[in-house]
Input
Amino acid sequence: MLADEKIRNQALEPDQSFIVEAPAGSGKTELLIQRYLKLLGLAKLPEEILAMTFTRKAAAEMKERVFSALTEAQTQDRPKKAHASFTWELAQKVLEQDKSLEWGLMNNPARLRIVTIDSFCSSLTRRMPLLSRMGIGLNIQENAKIIYRETARIILSLAENKTNPYAVMVQNILQHIDNSKEDFIKRIVQLLEKRDQWMISFFDHRENLEIHPLNENTRKKLSFALEGLIQARLDELNNLFSLKIQKRILKIALYSGNNLVTNNSSHPCSCLAYLKFFPDTTIKSLEIWKGLAHLFLTKNNTYRKKPDVRLGFPAGKNLFEKEMKDEFEKLVGSLQTNPAILSTLTKVKKLPRREFTNEEWNLLKSTIRLLAEINKILKQVFSSHQITDFTEVSLAAIKALVNKNENGEEYPTDLLFYLDCKIHHILVDEYQDTSFKQEELLHKLTSEWSNQDGKTLFIVGDPKQSIYRFRDAEVGLFIKTQYHGIGNISLKPLSLKSNFRSQKYLVDWINNCFQRIFPQHEDANLGAISYNPSTAVLEKSINPGVIYHPIPYNEDSNIISQDEANKISALIKTLQLRYPKKSLAVLVRGRTHLTSIIRLFNESNIAFKADSIDSITDRPAILDLLSLLRALRFSGDRIAWLSILRAPWCGLSLRDIHSLVELNASTPIWLLLNNTSQITLLSKDGQKRIQNFLQNIRPFLNRFVDQNFRDVLEACWIKLGGPACLQGTNPDDIEVFFNKVEEIIFSGQEDKFENFDQILMDLYASPLAITENAVQVMTMHKAKGLEFDFVILPGLGKRIKGEEKRLIYWMPHGDDLLLAPIEEKGGEASPIYEFLSDLNKEKEDYETLRLLYVAATRAKSQLHLFGHLEPSKETKWKPHSKSLLNKLWPHIKDDWLKKLTETMVSEPIQHKKETSAVHSTQRLPINFSLPTPAQSIIEGPLVDIEIERYLEPEYYWAGNKARCLGNVLHRCLHDIAVEGLEKWTKEKIENLKPRFKSALQGEGLPFDQAEEALESGIIAISKVFEDDRGLWILSLHEDAHSEYPLTFFENNHYIRSVIDRTFIDGGIRWIIDYKTGTHKGGGKSLDIFLDNEEKRYKPQLDRYESVLRKYGEKLPIKKALYFPLLNAWREIN
Output
C-alpha cells in the first residue's frame, strides 16, 4: 500500500473542493485524470467539467490520456496493476453514463473541455467582444516585444509634444535616467512585459486610470505598507535574540553609544546612548536597530573582529575598557552560533525610512500617471496591427465576466451567469505557475459559487516547482489559496508523498539536501516554501543516486569550462557504452553555460539534440543574410554593406575595406563601390572581388519595389554564392529566415524589417541530431515536466546573472502593493528602491532553490553535479556567493571538498593556457561560379492534368439544382468549420439566407429554383447543428482541414482531389465526404439508397486514403459519408 493511498482516495470525493500539493514524480497527472473521470461518470453533460492547464502540451497530454483510458475501458479487460485497474473502473462508469445519456463521446471527444487557460480566455473574449473591449479578428502574438518597442517609441515622442499633458512626465523620467532614450525604451518595454502585475494589483480597481488621485492619502497608504514590512523585519531579528543575549547587547550598545555621542555624534551608533530598555519593533525604533546592526557589522556586512575607538571603544588603558572589549568579542562569538542572525542584521542595516522624499514621490507620481497612458497607447498599437497578446486577452476575459455600477461595485454579466449554469466543476493543473490575472479569473468564475451548491474546485500543483517568475508566476498564490481558498470556496489541502520516478538512493539524497537548504518556514509574500520529504516507491539501485564532479579552479574561466566539457563528454561516452538504451540529459541554468560543451560534442561526434538553445543569430550564415537584407532594404546602412563585403561571398580583406572607407566616413558604401578612383586603391584581389560582387548584386537593387522581396532576397543570396557559404548552418535555418521574411511581407508590416534582428533573436536554430537516443541538451526551465535516466548539471560554480534596474519597482505584498521609483542615474541609491530590490532578490533566491529541485528531480537513476570552487580568505575554497553550487553548499560541502582533494591529487592543476587558434575567414575562390542547374524538364511521356470532378460518380439524374445546392452547402460547412461552431448562432444562420440565395444564383440557378434550394440548404445547416455527429465533424480537431486540396499522380495523370473534411481524432485519421442529396421515404427504401451511395462513392474515398498515404500519413484511417439533410452516416470499410 502507498504511503499516501488514503489521501489519493480522498482527493476523488466528488462533492469536495481540494488543493493538492503533488511533488515531483508523485503521479499528479494520473490523479487529475482519475478525478476528471470520476466527475464525468456522475455528470449530466460532459461540458459541466472544465479542466485547465498552462501549456498546450499539458492540455493535449491530459486529453489524450483521458481518451486513451476510455478507449482501453471499451476495448480491453481490467488491468492487473492496482492504479491502472482503478482508472479502468472509473472509465467504465463514464462509458455507461455516455451510453445512457447519449453523449457520443467516442465519436465527439471535443465535448471534453480540457483546455489551456489562454485558450479559455480567448473563447470568453470571442463570446463577448464588446464587453471585453477586444473586438474580433485580432491575432494573438506570443512574442509582442516589437509592439512593445513601438509603443515605447510613441511614449518617448510625447516629450517633444508641448501640448500633451504627459510630456512633462516623460521629460521628468528622462532627466532621471540621464536623458538616455534607449534606456527609456528598454524600461518601458520592461513595464509592458509585466503589465498584468500592476494592472491587476493596483489599477484595475479604478475605471479611469488617468484621474487616479495620487494625493497625500495615497502617499500615506504606501508609506504605511512599507512601515508594516519594516516592522516585520525588526520582529524577525528581535525573535533571534534570547533575553540573555538582549541584556548583553544592551550593555555593549549603551557603552558604545555614550562614548560616541560625546566624541562623534554623527556616527550611526551614537543613538544607542539613549537606550533605557531593549528596543521594541515599532517604526520609532528603526534608527536604534540600524545602530545595533552597524555596531556588529563591517561595511562589507561581516562581523567585526575587534572594536576600536571609532566604534566607541577606547584603546583599553584601564581594566573596564579591556573588559568591555572582551565582552564585545565574546558577544560576537555568541551571535555567530546562529547563521540567521548575520543575514538578518544585514537586512536591518539596509532598511529604508518609511517616507518618500518629495523628489521620489514626484517621480513616482509621474511614472504611475504615465502607466495609464502607456496601457492606452499599447491597445491602440495592437489595434492598428490587428493583433494582441495573451496578457491583453486574459485581462479582457476578466472584464467580460463582470460589470461595474455607478458606485464601482461589481456585478455578474450574462456571460458569467451562463458559465455559472454550465460549469459545475473546475480542475486546474500546475497551479504553482498561476499569475495574478489567472487567479483573478478563477475568483471571478467561482464568485457565484458556495460551498454547499455541489460545485467543486480541484487545484493541483507543487509550489516547490514554481520556477516561472519571469512569466509572472507567483508561488505565494498557492500558499494563500491553501489557507484562504478562492473567493467563497474553501479548499481542503492535501499532500502527496509517494515518488514513482526515482530510485531510493536518489530520493533520499533529494530529501536530505532540500530539507536542509529550503527555508524552514513558509512566507507567501516572499515565496518561501518549506520542504516536505517524499517516499520512494522504487527500490535502491546498484548505482549511487548522486555523484559529485569538482572541477579544479583556474584563473582562466575558459580553461575551467573546457575542463568541465571534457569530463562531461567522457562521462557521457561511458554511460552510453554501459547503458545504450537509457536516456541522458544535460541541464543548465543559462544557455551561455553550454558553449564549450556543445563545441566539444560536435568535435567528439556525440549525438545530441539541443532544443531552443542556439539562437538562429548564432549562425554566421544567418548574420550574413541579415546584413544582405538590410543592405537591400536600407541602402544607407554602412554597417550592413561593410558586413556583406566581408562575408564569404565577397570576401574583401580588412586592409581593402579600410582603404575603401578610410577617408569617406559618411559617404554611402554603394557610391564608393561605384567610384572607379576609389576602387583603384584596393589590392588586385580586392578589385576583382568588388567587380564580381557588383556584377552579381546590381540586378537586384530596388527590384523588390515591384516584386516579392522574399524572392528577390533569396535570388540575390543564391547569385552571390550564399548556399556555398553555410559554414555549418543547417539549411532548415536558412529556410526559417526566408519564411519569416515572407510572413512579414504578407502581414503588410514591412516596417518590422527595421528591427528584424530582434525578431530573429526569438527564433532558435534547428537541432542537428537525428539519432533516436541522442543526449538531450536544454535549460532547467525547459526540462520541467520531463524525466531522464541520467541527468548531468554542469556549470554549478558559475555566478547567476543579476536583475536589471526597473523604471519603477512594484511588488505585491499581502493586500498591498509596494512601490519605489528608480534612483537618479549616477546619483545616490534610493533606500526604498534598494529595499524592494533586496526583497526581490530574496524571492529570486528562493526560486533558484526551487529551480535546483526541479533539475535534480528530473533524474530517474542517477544525478551528476559539475562545478568549481574559488579561492577564499576565510577558507581555502568556497563557491561563488551567487552560484547554484553555493545554494547546495550546506549539504554537499564536506563530500565535495573531499572529492576535490582526491581530484587535485590524481589530476594536478595545469596552469598552461590554451593557445587561441588563428582566426581565418572563409572566402569563396575569386573564380567561383554557380554550379550548372539541373535539367528542369525531364523528357518522357506527356502528362495530363485532370480535376477530380470528372472522375466522380455521375449524378446527372439529380439535376442542376442538386449540383448548385451541393456546391454552396459545401462552402457553408467549410466556413462553419473554419470560423468555429460557437460563432454560428441561430440568428447567424437565419441572417445567412440572402447570401446563400445569392450564392445559388451565382452558381447559375434560376430565381424560382433558388428559393426551393435555399429552403433545403437552411434546413440542412440547422440539422447539422441538431445532430451530435454533425457537431463533432465540424468541431475543432487536431490537424483538421476543410475543402482540403491534394494532387496525386496516377496512370500518367495528375489528378487534383478535394477532401470535404479530414482530421485526427483519438489517434485515427478521418476522411469524411458530404453528400447533400435527399431521399423521400424511409425504412428499407432509405437503407437501399444509402447502400447504393456507399457503393457509388467507395472508390472515391479509397482514392483519398491512397493519396494521404502517399503524403506520409501513418495513422489508421477511417472513411465515411455524411448526409446532413438525412441525418445519416455511413462508414466505408
